[in-house]
Amino acid sequence: MATALLIVIYFTFISLGLPDSILGSSWPAIATNLGLDSAMNGFLSLVVSGGTIISSFASSFILKRVKPQFVILFSVVLTVLGLVIFSLTRADYTWLFFLACIPLGLGAGAIDSALNNYVALHYKAIHMNWLHCTWGIGASISPLILGAFINPEQSSSGWNWGVITVACVQGAIFLLILVTLPLWNRMAARETKEEKEVEQAGTDFKLSTLVHNPVTYLAMIGFLCYCALENSTGLWISSFFKNTFDKPDDLCATLASIFYIGITVGRFICGPLSLKFNEKRMIRIGQTILTFGIGLSCLSLIGLNGSPEVMETWSIIAIMGFVLTGLGCAPIYPAIIRSTPYRFSREATPRVMGFEMGCAYIGTLTIPVTFGQIAEHTNNSFFALPIMTLILALIMIFCHEAINHKLKRRDATLSPEELSHYRTL
Fold first, then answer.
1. pTM for the full model?
2. Could you point out which of 184, 219, 277, 351 has its C-alpha 20 to 30 Å from the C-alpha of 339?
3. At what angle are helices 385-412 and 214-245 packed, to 10 degrees?
4. How far is CA 22 from the centre of its chain?
5. How far apart are CA 407 and CA 218, in angstroms?
6. DSSP H helical ranges for 68-158
7. Do residues 419 and 411 touch, judged by C-beta distance below 8 A?
8. What is the residue-level pLDDT of the chain in tens, covering all 425 positions?
9. What distance in Å separates the CA atoms of residue 365 and residue 392, rounded to the nearest whole number?
10. CA torsion sign, 9 to 187 to 358 to 399?
11. Which of 269, 291, 270 is nearest to 281 (CA)?
């Protein structure tokens, strides 16, 4: 029963990843086809992130009144609606892009919070990694689908048919969730007494108790930097290759998938590794690989303004850097989510999860848009993307190491019974 439900949850997370890479991979083609500014992508991302933040913060209150399976089902419907509206947008009705981004953001935030909380409390670390691996599958598929439909010889037309195809895949996943709704009730009936007590304690937990805990602020800043780094890379990687190495639009859309493929492969590998290493070690491994990958991307900037042959060589190094950046990102997000019960207690997790993720998405709302605006108004300087992500990575590393130091001191003062409230499966 638990395995069958887990498979459904995996497919649901594929549906979460599918729309996430739509904007970044399709926008160079859309801008060419409809004659729009590159920076408009950042404003659309802002709308998506705004909706995600609202639904993330609201998730703890919604989940007290509505079962998670129904929240997830409705959220998938919202993403399908958003994709359909997105695909129907034309040059004279560009406001429809903004309308489409509202349900895309609201749907993504609700799915993310509900499923991360559920898996963190009911499944082992290997499943958290593979859960986010399936997100990477969805995020990797979208750019490949879009790249297959875009025709650079006809003003990069065909992107809308790619988006429609992604919407159809979303619709199929919606039907899967719909027909498997009884699995959730059967799983709930098999919950242990301890799990029910934890869920009840979580509904009564007051977020005000976190205000005086410095770990709260370090965790939020660290998660904010990670989400900003991941979202900025996914959003602007196509623009980076187009404006830095002058790649064609269809290839730029396809290259957007390399970052997500790195995340996907990395999370598949991290599944069994999580059985050997704890969350702290997994985050450190990811940060090391991530920093090396970003360093390679920064190194590729040496090839700027060189001959075509030189630029081609350095573009390959940039591709390798972004793949490694994706590999480095792989364990960080799942490990942070899995660390929530350890950092704040199992009882606090249901409430903290939505709040934690809502704060993190503030980073995806502000930093990618700000970078896009700066790049657009400084002669399309998207080449600075690796430099910006390096700064975010260093701040994130500092926050996580500070958290480790404070939690080590906390654990030394707790009794075995008190430590049991901070354990994970």
1. 0.74
2. 184
3. 160
4. 13
5. 12
6. 68-88, 95-122, 125-149
7. yes
8. 667 888 888 888 888 888 888 887 788 888 888 888 777 877 888 888 888 888 877 876 787 778 888 888 999 999 999 999 999 888 788 889 999 999 998 988 878 777 877 777 677 777 777 887 888 788 888 888 888 888 877 777 788 899 999 999 999 999 999 998 888 877 766 655 455 555 554 444 566 666 677 888 898 899 899 989 998 898 888 888 888 887 877 787 777 778 888 888 888 898 888 888 888 999 999 999 999 999 999 998 887 777 777 778 888 899 999 999 999 999 998 888 888 888 887 777 767 776 777 777 788 778 888 888 888 777 767 888 999 999 999 999 999 999 999 988 888 888 777 776 666 55
9. 15
10. negative
11. 270
Token pair of 75 as six digits:
């959220």
CA–CA distance from 163 to each of 19, 74, 144, 157, 166 (Å)?
9, 20, 11, 12, 5
Length of the chain: 425
Cα(293)–Cα(281) distance, rounded to whole angstroms?
Answer: 19
Q: Where are the domains of the chain?
A: 7-422
User: Quick check: 364 and 109 in contact, CB under 8 A?
Assistant: no
Q: Which two tokens stand for residue 145?
A: 């689908």
CATH number for the segment(s) 7-422: 1.20.1250.20
Instruction: Note whether 244 and 383 are within 8 A (CB).
Output: yes
CB 333 within 8 A of CB 194: no
Q: What is the DSSP letter of 207?
A: G
Give every CB contact of residue 62 below 8 A, 6+ residues apart in sequence: 71, 110
Contact 42, 365 (CB under 8 A): no
